[in-house]
Design goal:
Radius of gyration of chain B: 28 Å
Structural class of chain A: mainly beta
Number of strands of chain B: 15
Number of helices of chain B: 18
Number of helices of chain A: 21
Oligomer: heterodimer
Strand content of chain A: over 45%
Largest interface: A-B, 90 and 93 residues
Radius of gyration of chain A: 36 Å
Distance between the termini of chain A: 40 Å
Strand order of the largest sheet of chain B: 5-15-14-9
Distance between the termini of chain B: 92 Å
Helix content of chain B: 25-40%
Chain lengths: ~1150, ~575
C-alpha cells in the first residue's frame, strides 16, 4: 500500500468544502501520460488526495485524456471507465480508487487512524536544522528535531496536520493525509524575500537592494479614478513630488512631478526611455509597478540622463497560468474642487461705487439703478452669473478595460485593451477627450536556452474642443473672457441671434466656449511602441539579452478659428450697436478666422545588448551585468495655415489662397552607453554594488561628449547578525544602506559647441521677400552636462512578522557644472554674450520617511502607511554683479541662500485711523498722502521712517511645496474593502497677487469675487455701510489699486500658507461571494465606488491649492473631484 | 531542433545590428547653418546683409515716439519714465546700446575682402555695411554723446581689461561718422539700388541728417566731461556746411522729387505716406502685410474700425494749435458751449491741409463712414455741460449717447479727442496684427529741404533758407514766407508740422536743447477736446480737457541718456553722463 507523496497545499479557501467536489473544474489535454502523472497533476492543482493500492491499480499505464472544464467525476470516469476501476469520494476530497467490485481496505476510519510520523527538517540549502519544533496542530502533542534534523512523532491522526516552527524561519504546516514520513525544508523568514523589483536593466530581490528606491504597484495606482496615470502618483511614493494644475480633459501635461524636488526625471518603460507625454498615455491597467530610482546608486546605470532620478514603469506580463480575463468598467462624474463665488450685479455696482468714492469721484451707479439690480425685474438691469453659464456642475467620464493574462510553460501573454472618454464641464458640451489603449506583451520560450518576446503598445488619443482652451494660452483663454465678464451685462437680448457684450472686448465667454462661434481645435495623436527581445542562456550561467525598440509618436493638430461679432443693446430705444469682433492674440499667424494645421512626428530607436552572470561560491554571491546601448531619435514638425476661412469646410483648400503661411523644422539626437554593474553579497548580510555607465551624447563636442558615471553602494542587514536574532527576535529585517555616486543631466545646452547661424529675419527688397541669417551664439567648445553628486543614507526596518515597517532616507545632492551665464566677466563692447558655461552650483538636501503597519484580526485585515518627503535647494555658486554695500548684498546675495523665496515687506494688519497713518513710516513716498484707513500697514524694518527697498526681507517660502506627504489606509472585512489615500503638501507660500483677476478688485474690468464684497475693509458708505473688520484692504479704482502700495509693494499680507491635505482617493469595494459566481464562470467580481480629490483642507479658499504658480494665474480650468462607480470582474 | 534555434538567434541578431552604430553620435542642429558654410555661398552672404538691413539703425519703424514729444499722448495713459522725468542711471529709457550689431558689422567688414564674389558686389556690400555702422553710431551718439568706437571684432577670450574700452569723445564719434559716410559714398558710387537698400544718395542724406545733429550740438550744447559729451562750439559752422551741402546734393540730384500728384492738398499729403515707392522716398522699409507686415493700422484705427487694439496715438490740442492757418492769419479756434459747429472740421477748417491729412477728429470721414468721438449728448435746449448723457451703449432718441469711436476697451479710446491719420491705410478694413503693408519712410526728400533750410539759416544764408522752406510750404498749400517773416522759430515749426509723427520731434527738441524750456513739454499738462453733441441744434461744441492725468517733466540731464550703473559695472572704464 503506497500513498501518493505530494506536497499538500493548505489553502485558506475551505469555506466551500461541502461543495468542493461539485464545483471543482479542470481542463486537461494530454496524450500518452501515465495515470500516476494525471493523478499527481490533479493533486497539485486541487485539494483532492488519492488513495489506492499500487498492486491493484495500474498507474503506470499511459492514457490519453482530453477534458475541458470538467468536474472530478468526469475526469475520473474518462480515466478509469474502461479499466474497471471504481472510485469513492470521502469527506469531499479524499478519493479512494479500487478495482471494480472489490472491497477497499480504505475506509473513513482507516483514513483517520492514528499512526507514527517521522522525517527530517532542513534549511533551504539542505543542511539539517536541529531544534525545530514539530507539533500536531490543535494538540499539545509535539517534539523537536535532533542534531541531524530528524524527528519522530507518535499518535498522529491520518487527517491531522503537523506544524513546523523555528526562530528565523518561516513556519510551515503539512497535512499528514496518511503519510508516515514527512520531510520538510524551512525557508528563512525574511521580509518579502521573494519580492523582486525592477531596477535599471534588470530585476533584483527587494531585500538585496542597496540604493534608494521606492515602488508602487499598478493595483494601487488603479484606485484613483483619474484619466491619466501621472495624476494617481501623488502621495503614493516617498520622494516623489506631484502637482496637478488643471482638471481640463486631455491636459496630459498638467501634472508636474519630480523626484526629491529635482528637475524632470528620466522615464523608462520596460527598459527604454519614453517622454513624459508618453508616460501620461499609459493605461494604469497595464501597469505592474512603478519604481522610482532616487539616488546615484540606483540611477547611475542611466548615466548622463539620470541626474534628476529615474521613474521605471513595468507593465504586466503573462505567467504559466490559466487565462485570466479581467474586465473593469468605471463611470465617474467630475466636478470642480472649488466653485468660485462672484459678486452679483448689485454687489458689483456697489463695489464700483465704493472704489470711486475712495478715489473721491462721484458714483457711477445711482441708488435707483442699484435697486433695479437688486429687484432684477428690469431686463436692462440683469444679473448674469457667467460662471454658471459657461460651466455645468458635473461632467461624465468613463473608462473600460479588458485584459487577459496567462500562458503555458512556453508561451506567456498579457493582452489588454482600454477605452476612456472624458467630457469637460463646459456647458457647451464642445470639449472632450478620448483615449484608446492596446497592449500585447508576449514571451515565448523557444528552447531551454532561448527566449524571445514581443511587446506592442498602441495608443490613440483625441482631444476636441473650441479654438480657445479654458486656460489662458498665449494671450487668451475662455477663463480670461469669463473672469473679465461682468454680471450686469445680459446673457441674451430680445434678438437671440445677437451675441451680447459681456463686459470685455475679448469676447463673450459663453460663445468663446462654443465651436460654432469660436471655431474648433482638434488634437489627434497616435503613439506606437514595439519591443523585440531575445534572451539566450550561455554556458557558465551567463545570459545574453538583446532588445530592439521602435517608438513613434505622431500628432496632428487642427485649429479652425472663427470670429463672431458681439453687440450692445439699448433697451429703451431697441437699438443694437456692434461693440466689437472676437479676435485672436499672440499667434504668429493671424487675428482672423483661419485654418491652421500642424503635423509632427517623433521617433526613436533603441538597441540594447546585455550580458549578465551570477555565481554562488559558498556564502559569497556574485553577479555582474554589462550593457551596450544605442539610441537614435529624431523629430519633425510641419505647419501650414490659411486666413479668412469663411466657409464651413475645415480644409485648407477651402480658404482663399491669399494670406497664408507655412513652416517646418526638425531635430535629431542619439546616445551610446556602456553600462556595468557588479553585485556582491556575503551570506545575505553584507551587500555591495558597483554601478557605472560610460555615456556619450552628441549634443556636446567630441572631446567632452563621453562621460563616466560611477556609483557605489553598500548595505548591511543588521538583522541577520546573531546578536540581533537572539536579542531582538521580533525584528524581521533591519538594513542600513549608503550610496554615493555621480550622475549627469544632459538636456541642456544642446549643440552649443557649434557656432551657428539661424534664419532669423525677413527683408522685403524690390517686392521680393528674402531671408536674413544671423549668428546665433558664440560657440562654447567646452560645454557638457550638469553633474550631480548624490549621497544617500537609508535604513529599512520591519518587525513583528512585517506588521510594522519603517524606512528612512537622507539625501544630499550637489549639482555642479550647471549651465550659467557669467555675468560680469566680459565688457559688452565685445558685442557677444559669452555662452553659458558649466560652472554654477546648487545643492539639494532632504529626507524621506515611510512607515507602515498591517495586521489582521480575524477576518478584518488592515494596512496603514504614511510617507513624507522634505527637499530644499540652495544656491552655492552663481555669478553676481558686485554689491555696492552691505544693504545691497543683503537684498541681492544669492549664494548660500535657499532658492525660490518670496521677498517683500512685512505687514502689520490694516490701518484703522488717520492718526495711525500720521504716526506711521512713509510708505507711499508722499508722506502717506495716498494712505487711508483700511490700507495695509507695511513695517519699517530699518526704522528710518521710510518704507523702501531697504525694508524688504524674506517673507515667505518657495512657491512650490518643499514638503509632500501621503497617508494611506486600507482595510478589508470579509467581502468588503475600503482604501483611502490622503495627500498633502507643505512649506510653501502662495502669492495671491500673482492671480491678478482675482486679487486685484476690478482688475481690467474683471468680475469681482464675492469675498471682496463680504470681507474687504470698507469705509462708511451709503450702499453697504462700513466694514472696518474686513480682512482685505481698502480698494480704489483699478489703476489706483495697481499703483497703490497695498498692491504694488508685495507684502506678506498677500502670502498664504499653501499647506493642504486632501482626500486624494477613497474607494469602497465589495467582492461578491465566489459560489454565486463560479456557476457563471466568473472567478471574482468586485463592485466599488471611488472618488478623487473628495475633500480638501487648505487656507487657500478661493482657488485650488494645487494651482499653477506660473503663467496667468487663475485663468485656468479648475482641478476636479471625481465620483466614480466601477465594476471589475475576472473570469 | 537545436540548430534551428541558433539560426533564429543569429538571424535575429543580424537584424538588430542593421544600420546601428554609424550615425548615433554624428548629429547636427537641424535648425541652423554652420559657420563654415556662410562665407562661401553668395546667397548666404546676401542673407547676412539682409539680416543687417532687417534691423538697420532706423529712427524706429512705426514706433511710438509721438508719446514722448509734444505731438500726442497715448490711449494707455502715457505714464512712463521719460514723460515723468524718471529716467535714471538704473533706467535707460529707449536705450540704444547693442554692440552685438557693431560686432556683426565688424565681422562682415573683416570678411568682405576675402569673399569669393565679384568686386562690384564686394564694393557694394562694403559700402552698405560701412554706412549702416556709421548710422548705428549716430543713433548711439544721439542718446549718449561719446561712446566707445569699436572698429574690429574683439576677442571675447582676451583678458577682460583689454576689452574694457573707454568712451570716445562725442566729437570723435561724429568725426568717425563723417569719415565713414564719406567712405561709403565712394563705395556706393555706382549703386543703383531699390529704395530698401542704400545708395550713394542715401549716404548723402544720412550725412545731412547726422551733420545737422553735430552742428546743433556744437551750437546749443556745452562741452562736459572733458568732451565726452558735447562738441566744440567752433565746429558748428563746419557741420552746418556739411549738412547743407549734403542735403543740396540730394535735392539737386533730381533723382527724387517732392510728391505732388494731387491738387487736393489733403489727399496729396496723405499720398506721400500711403503710395508705395513714390518719388519722394529716399529710403524705406517695405512690408507686404502678409509674411512681413506691421501693426500701425491695427494699433491706431479708431475703435469702431478696429479689429484688435486700435486708438493708441492721440494727438494733443497743443499740437493742433501749432498748425498755421493757410491764409497766414493767427487766430485760433473758439471752444466752449457758446460755439456750436457742424463737426470738428468746421472748428479747424482754417488750418493747414496737413492737419486734416494727419489727424482724425469728430466727424472726420474714414473708410466710407465718419469717426464719432463725441463723449456725450447735451439734451438741454441751451447747451449745459453739467447735465450730459453719457451712458455707453445707450441711446438718446435713437442717437448713441457716446460716439462709437469713444467706446470699447479703455486702451483704445482717445484721451485727447483725436486719432492719428498720417500713415493710416484707408483701404485696409479691420486691420489685424501685422497686416499693414505701408512702407516706413526712413528718409524722404522733404526732410532734406528742411535740413537745407535750417542749416542755411544757421549759416546766415536767409535766401537759401527761404527757398527751401517755401518749397515745402508751397507743396502744403500754405502761405509762403518772405525774408522778413522767416525766423528760426518758423523753420522749426515747419519741421514740427511737416515731419509730425515721423520720429523727429522728440529728438529735435533734444537737439535744440529746448525740451526743458518748451512749456508744453515740461511742467504743464497736455490738453484735448471733449466733443459734445448738442441734440436740440444737431451741432457740436468742444470743451478743453486734460489729455493726461500728470504733469510732464524733463530734467536737463535727460538731454543725454544715462550710461547706467549696469554698463559701468560691466566695463569700469566707462564714465556716467553728467548729473545722473
Amino acid at each position: 500500500m503506497k500513498l501518493s507523496l505530494l506536497l499538500i497545499v493548505v489553502g485558506v479557501l475551505q469555506s466551500a468544502a461541502s461543495v468542493y467536489s461539485q464545483t471543482w473544474r479542470m481542463s486537461l489535454n494530454e496524450k500518452s501520460m501515465t495515470v500516476k502523472e494525471v493523478l499527481s497533476r490533479i493533486e497539485s492543482t486541487s485539494d483532492f488526495r488519492f488513495f489506492y493500492e499500487e498492486k491493484k491499480i495500474d498507474v503506470e499505464k499511459k492514457v490519453t485524456i482530453d477534458v475541458s472544464n470538467a468536474s472530478i467525476t468526469v475526469v475520473l470516469s474518462q480515466l478509469f471507465d474502461k479499466e474497471g476501476v471504481e472510485y469513492k469520494i470521502f469527506n469531499n476530497n479524499y478519493i479512494v480508487l479500487k478495482p471494480k467490485g472489490e472491497n477497499s481496505s480504505f475506509t473513513m476510519e482507516t483514513l483517520q487512524q492514528q499512526k507514527s510520523v517521522s522525517g527530517k527538517v532542513s534549511d533551504s540549502s539542505g543542511s539539517p536544522l536541529p531544534g525545530v519544533s514539530v507539533v500536531v496542530k490543535g494538540t499539545t502533542n509535539g517534539t523537536i528535531t535532533d542534531t541531524n534534523g530528524n524527528y519522530s512523532l507518535p499518535n498522529v491522526p491520518e487527517n491531522g496536520t503537523l506544524q513546523f516552527s523555528f526562530v528565523g524561519m518561516k513556519g510551515q504546516e503539512v497535512a499528514v493525509t496518511g503519510k508516515t514520513s514527512i520531510n520538510v525544508k524551512l525557508e528563512e523568514e525574511t521580509v518579502g524575500i521573494e519580492e523582486v523589483v525592477a531596477v535599471g536593466y534588470g530585476v533584483q530581490k527587494k531585500i538585496n537592494l542597496t540604493g534608494a528606491l521606492s515602488t508602487v504597484s499598478g493595483e494601487k495606482l488603479k484606485e484613483s479614478p483619474v484619466m491619466n496615470i501621472t495624476q494617481s502618483l501623488a502621495g503614493r511614493l516617498p520622494g516623489l513630488f506631484v502637482k496637478n494644475t488643471s482638471g481640463a480633459p486631455g491636459k496630459n501635461d498638467a501634472v508636474s512631478y519630480n523626484i526629491r524636488g529635482f528637475g524632470t526625471p528620466l522615464i523608462i518603460q520596460d527598459g527604454t526611455a519614453i517622454t513624459p507625454a508618453q508616460f501620461a498615455l499609459i493605461n494604469p491597467n497595464e501597469i505592474e509597478s512603478i519604481n522610482v530610482l532616487k539616488d546615484a546608486a540606483s540611477a547611475a546605470v542611466y548615466g548622463a540622463r539620470a541626474g534628476n532620478g529615474v521613474i521605471l514603469v513595468t507593465t504586466k506580463r503573462g505567467g504559466n497560468t490559466k487565462p485570466e480575463f479581467l474586465f473593469t468598467s468605471n463611470y465617474g462624474v467630475q466636478s470642480f474642487t472649488r466653485d468660485p463665488e462672484f459678486t452679483n450685479s448689485e454687489q458689483y455696482a456697489i463695489i464700483e461705487n465704493i472704489s470711486l468714492q475712495n478715489d473721491g469721484i462721484k458714483p457711477k451707479w445711482s441708488d435707483e439703478q442699484i435697486n433695479k439690480f437688486r429687484e432684477g425685474s428690469d431686463p436692462a438691469y440683469p444679473n448674469t452669473n457667467w460662471w454658471d453659464m459657461v460651466f455645468s456642475k458635473y461632467a461624465p467620464q468613463t473608462k473600460n478595460d479588458l485584459s487577459v493574462k496567462g500562458g503555458s510553460e512556453n508561451v506567456k501573454y498579457f493582452l489588454s485593451g482600454g477605452f476612456l472618454t472624458q467630457e469637460s464641464q463646459l456647458s457647451s458640451g464642445d470639449m472632450d477627450y478620448k483615449r484608446y489603449n492596446l497592449r500585447s506583451n508576449i514571451d515565448i520560450k523557444l528552447s531551454k536556452r532561448l527566449d524571445i518576446g514581443l511587446d506592442l503598445n498602441m495608443v490613440l488619443h483625441d482631444y476636441n474642443g473650441p479654438t480657445y482652451d479654458v486656460e489662458r494660452e498665449a494671450n487668451i483663454g475662455i477663463s480670461t473672457a469669463l473672469l473679465r465678464s461682468r454680471p450686469y451685462y445680459p446673457s441674451e437680448f430680445p434678438d437671440k441671434t445677437k451675441i451680447p457684450y459681456s463686459g470685455t472686448d475679448i469676447g463673450n465667454p459663453v460663445y468663446h466656449s462654443q465651436i460654432d462661434y469660436a471655431g474648433s481645435k482638434n488634437d489627434n495623436n497616435f503613439f506606437a511602441d514595439g519591443k523585440f527581445k531575445i534572451a539566450y542562456k550561455l554556458p557558465f550561467n551567463i545570459n545574453f539579452k538583446a532588445l530592439y525598440d521602435f517608438n513613434r509618436f505622431y500628432s496632428r493638430n487642427k485649429i479652425r478659428r472663427k470670429n463672431y461679432d458681439f453687440y450692445q443693446y439699448d433697451w429703451g430705444s431697441d437699438v443694437y450697436s456692434k461693440f466689437s469682433t472676437s479676435w485672436f492674440r499672440g499667434d504668429e499667424t493671424t487675428n482672423n478666422s483661419a485654418i491652421i494645421e500642424t503635423y509632427s512626428l517623433a521617433q526613436s530607436i533603441t538597441q540594447q545588448y546585455i550580458l549578465d552572470w551570477s555565481k554562488r561560491i559558498g556564502s559569497h554571491n556574485l553577479s555582474a551585468l554589462g550593457v551596450f546601448e544605442l539610441i537614435n531619435s529624431n523629430y519633425e514638425i510641419f505647419k501650414a495655415w490659411r486666413e479668412n476661412a469663411l466657409f464651413d469646410i475645415d480644409y485648407l483648400f477651402a480658404a482663399p489662397d491669399l494670406n497664408k503661411g507655412n513652416t517646418g523644422s526638425g531635430s535629431e539626437d542619439g546616445r551610446i552607453g556602456f553600462v556595468s554593474r557588479i553585485n556582491y553579497d556575503y551570506k545575505g548580510k553584507y551587500f555591495a554594488e558597483l554601478n557605472s555607465r560610460y555615456d556619450a551624447s552628441p549634443r556636446f563636442p567630441e572631446d567632452s561628449r563621453w562621460g563616466f558615471f560611477p556609483s557605489f553602494s553598500a548595505a548591511w542587514r543588521v538583522s541577520e547578525e546573531e546578536f540581533i536574532k537572539q536579542n531582538f527576535p521580533n525584528v524581521d529585517n533591519l538594513k542600513i544602506r549608503a550610496s554615493y555616486g555621480q550622475l549627469g543631466y544632459d538636456n541642456v545646452g544642446n549643440f552649443q559647441y557649434l557656432s551657428t547661424f539661424n534664419i532669423s529675419s525677413k527683408y522685403l527688397v524690390n517686392g521680393i521677400l528674402e531671408n536674413g541669417i544671423r549668428i546665433a551664439n558664440l560657440a562654447n567648445p567646452d560645454i557638457t552636462w550638469e553633474k550631480m553628486t548624490t549621497e544617500n543614507i537609508g535604513m529599512d526596518l520591519s518587525m513583528w512578522q512585517n506588521k510594522f515597517s519603517l524606512s528612512f532616507d537622507y539625501f544630499y545632492r550637489l549639482r555642479s557644472d550647471v549651465l550659467g551665464t557669467r555675468s560680469v566677466s566680459m565688457p559688452n563692447v565685445v558685442g557677444a554674450s559669452l555662452p553659458a558655461v558649466n560652472y554654477a552650483k546648487y545643492d539639494n538636501r532632504g529626507f524621506e520617511i515611510e512607515v507602515g503597519h498591517k495586521h489582521s484580526i480575524g477576518d478584518f485585515i488592515y494596512n496603514v502607511g504614511a510617507n513624507l518627503t522634505w527637499s530644499r535647494q540652495k544656491t552655492i555658486l552663481v555669478d553676481q554683479s558686485a554689491f555696492g554695500n552691505d544693504e545691497e548684498r543683503r537684498r541681492g546675495e544669492k549664494n548660500g541662500k535657499w532658492t525660490n523665496r518670496w521677498w517683500g515687506y512685512k505687514s502689520n494688519g490694516l490701518f484703522q485711523s488717520e492718526e495711525e497713518i500720521r504716526n506711521w513710516a512713509d510708505q507711499d513716498g508722499k508722506n502717506n498722502a495716498t494712505i487711508l484707513p483700511g490700507d495695509i500697514k507695511l513695517v519699517d524694518l530699518n526704522e528710518d521712517g521710510v518704507i523702501n527697498v531697504d525694508d524688504q526681507t524674506m517673507i515667505g517660502r518657495s512657491s512650490f511645496p518643499e514638503l509632500m506627504f501621503g497617508i494611506n489606509l486600507d482595510a478589508a472585512y470579509k467581502g468588503f474593502d475600503v482604501k483611502m489615500l490622503w495627500q498633502g503638501a507643505g512649506q510653501y507660500n502662495f502669492n495671491y497677487l500673482s492671480a491678478n483677476d482675482i486679487f486685484y478688485p476690478l482688475y481690467a474690468g474683471s468680475w469681482v469675487w464675492k469675498f471682496w464684497y463680504d470681507d474687504a475693509w470698507t469705509p462708511e458708505n451709503q450702499w453697504s455701510g462700513a466694514n472696518t473688520n474686513g480682512h482685505w484692504p481698502r480698494y480704489r479704482t483699478d489703476t489706483n489699486n495697481r499703483t497703490h502700495p497695498n498692491w504694488n509693494k508685495l507684502s506678506d499680507y498677500w502670502l498664504e500658507d499653501g499647506d493642504y491635505i486632501r482626500l486624494k482617493t477613497l474607494e469602497l469595494g465589495y467582492t461578491l461571494k465566489k459560489p454565486l459566481l463560479t456557476k457563471y464562470g466568473i472567478s471574482n467580481c468586485r463592485i466599488f465606488i471611488s472618488g478623487n480629490n473628495l475633500l480638501t483642507f487648505s487656507k487657500i479658499k478661493y482657488i485650488d491649492p494645487e494651482i499653477a504658480t506660473t503663467g496667468t494665474i487663475g485663468n485656468y480650468y479648475p482641478q476636479t473631484k471625481v465620483y466614480n462607480v466601477g465594476l471589475s470582474m475576472s473570469f | 531542433m537545436k540548430t534551428k534555434y541558433y539560426k533564429i538567434l543569429i538571424a535575429g541578431l543580424s537584424f538588430l545590428f542593421l544600420g546601428s552604430c554609424n550615425d548615433v553620435l554624428d548629429k547636427e542642429l537641424l535648425t541652423s547653418i554652420s559657420d563654415q558654410d556662410i562665407w562661401n555661398d553668395k546667397n548666404l552672404i546676401q542673407a547676412y546683409v539682409n539680416d543687417l538691413y532687417s534691423r538697420a539703425p532706423y529712427t524706429g519703424v512705426f514706433t511710438d515716439w509721438y508719446r514722448y514729444s509734444d505731438e500726442a499722448t497715448a490711449a494707455d495713459g502715457n505714464q512712463n519714465a521719460l514723460n515723468q522725468g524718471n529716467m535714471s542711471k538704473t533706467n535707460d529709457q529707449l536705450g540704444y546700446w547693442d554692440y552685438s550689431l557693431v560686432r556683426a558689422y565688424n565681422l562682415f567688414l573683416e570678411k568682405v575682402n576675402s569673399l569669393q564674389v565679384s568686386a562690384d558686389l564686394k564694393t557694394k556690400w562694403e559700402g552698405e555695411v560701412r554706412l549702416m555702422r556709421a548710422v548705428y553710431y549716430f543713433e548711439m551718439a544721439k542718446r549718449y554723446g561719446g561712446v566707445p568706437i569699436v572698429e574690429k571684432v574683439l576677442d571675447p577670450n582676451a583678458p577682460v581689461e583689454e576689452n574694457m574700452l573707454p568712451r570716445n569723445s562725442e566729437a570723435e564719434v561724429f568725426k568717425f561718422i563723417e569719415t565713414e559716410i564719406d567712405k561709403s559714398i565712394k563705395l556706393l558710387e555706382n549703386a543703383n539700388s531699390p529704395k530698401e537698400n542704400y545708395n550713394y544718395l542715401t549716404a548723402h542724406a544720412y550725412k545731412a541728417r547726422t551733420m545737422l545733429w553735430a552742428a546743433s550740438i556744437a551750437k546749443y550744447s556745452a562741452l562736459q566731461l572733458n568732451g565726452t559729451v558735447g562738441i566744440p562750439a567752433s565746429q558748428s559752422d563746419y557741420y552746418y556746411k556739411l549738412a547743407l551741402d549734403a542735403a543740396e546734393k540730394v535735392i539737386n540730384s533730381n533723382k527724387y522729387s517732392l510728391y505732388n500728384k494731387y491738387d487736393d492738398k489733403i489727399k496729396n499729403y496723405q499720398g506721400i505716406f500711403t503710395e508705395k515707392d513714390n518719388s519722394e522716398i529716399i529710403l524705406q522699409r517695405a512690408f507686404n502685410g502678409n509674411e512681413l507686415g506691421h501693426s500701425f493700422d491695427n494699433n491706431n484705427t479708431p475703435p469702431s474700425y478696429r479689429l484688435t487694439y486700435g486708438g493708441r496715438c492721440n494727438p494733443v490740442w497743443e499740437m493742433i494749435l501749432s498748425y498755421e492757418n493757410t491764409d497766414g492769419t493767427a487766430d485760433q479756434p473758439l471752444l466752449g458751449k457758446e460755439n456750436l459747429y457742424d463737426n470738428a472740421y468746421a472748428l479747424l477748417k482754417k488750418k493747414d491741409a496737413r492737419l486734416h491729412a494727419s489727424i482724425m477728429y469728430q466727424g472726420a470721414s474714414w473708410q466710407g463712414g465718419t469717426v464719432d468721438i463725441y463723449e456725450a449728448i447735451d439734451p438741454n435746449a441751451n447747451p449745459n455741460p453739467s447735465n450730459l448723457l453719457s451712458n455707453i451703449g445707450e441711446s438718446y432718441n435713437g442717437k448713441l449717447q457716446v460716439g462709437k469711436d469713444f467706446t470699447g476697451s479703455s486702451e483704445a479710446i482717445t484721451k485727447s479727442g483725436f486719432y492719428i491719420k498720417k500713415y493710416m491705410d484707408e483701404t485696409l478694413i479691420k486691420p489685424g496684427e501685422n497686416k499693414s503693408s505701408t512702407s516706413w519712410i526712413e528718409i524722404r526728400l522733404g526732410e532734406m529741404y528742411l535740413i537745407a533750410a535750417e542749416s542755411a539759416f544757421e549759416l546766415g544764408d536767409k535766401a537759401k533758407a527761404l527757398a527751401r522752406l517755401n518749397a515745402i510750404r508751397q507743396r502744403a498749400g500754405i502761405m509762403l514766407l518772405n525774408e522778413n517773416s522767416i525766423t528760426i522759430e518758423k523753420i522749426r515749426n515747419e519741421r514740427k508740422i511737416e515731419l509730425a509723427f515721423e520720429n523727429f520731434r522728440y529728438w529735435d527738441l533734444r537737439r535744440w536743447r529746448i525740451s526743458e524750456s518748451n512749456q508744453v513739454n515740461n511742467g504743464v499738462r497736455f490738453h484735448g477736446l471733449k466733443a459734445v453733441f448738442h441734440y436740440p441744434s444737431g451741432k457740436y461744441y468742444f470743451l478743453l480737457k486734460d489729455a493726461e492725468t500728470f504733469v510732464r517733466t524733463f530734467r536737463p540731464e535727460h538731454y543725454y541718456n544715462p550710461i547706467t550703473t549696469a554698463r559701468i559695472n560691466n566695463n569700469t572704464s566707462l564714465i556716467e553722463n553728467p548729473n545722473y
